[in-house]
Amino acid sequence: MRIILFGPPGVGKGTQAKILSSEFQTAHISTGDMLREAVSSGTELGKKAKAIMDAGQLVSDDIMIGIIREILQSPKCKNGFILDGFPRTLPQAEALSLLLDELKIKLHGVINMELDLEEVVKRLSSRLACTQCGTIYNLLLDGILDSSSCPKCGGALFHRDDDKPETIRKRLEVYILSTTPVKEYYNKLGLLRNVNAGSSIEDVHTVILSIVNN
Ligand code: AMP
What we know:
Blueprint: E1 2-6, H1 13-24, E2 27-30, H2 31-40, H3 44-54, H4 61-72, E3 81-84, H5 90-102, E4 109-114, H6 117-125, E5 127-130, E6 136-138, E7 157-158, H7 165-188, E8 192-196, H8 201-213
Parallel strand pairs: 1-3, 1-4, 2-3, 4-8
Antiparallel strand pairs: 5-6, 5-7
């Protein structure tokens, strides 16, 4: 399976990608997670990316395309991939097409997860993630009683730096501006499939599965 999960921050791409990735034994490639790891381990990439991410802006296309080029050629992706957070701009989408041609592999589809932007802001402001197992929680929906530790593994829960209200607004502005041409690009290629991401995790998963199986 080689697909892209597309949609605004907070729409549930990471959650759906994790489920699909374990079901299909396919690599989940989250560029946001990769950048956050680089930031927390203090690499050169992390140092460059931190200020940009904290401001809700996009890391440069050159850097992102370089990261994707490397990972798609690695053994991790031999059973396919679920891209989460890439591509986010038209140059990234075009570069991905060239790279896939070069690697002689085909993209099967782009799942566009749609959600009302007010709901996106609500979800992002109430999102917590586990530092150990990566599970993402929603304070409003998941009935978390103790917001300091993960109900699954006991790891510390954290609120992402870029999930603050001012940064959320900036990220959504950037999302709308930069991703509209990406959607058009994949629509023209006949690869775009729209999914309403407003229902439960299980229902959204069922819809995505039916698209993937077709
Ligand atoms: P995410 O976790 O996907 O919301 O990504 C968090 C942040 O990482 C974004 O707000 C950007 O600053 C950066 N980022 C992640 N993926 C990309 C990308 N494909 N292009 C540019 N910046 C990215």
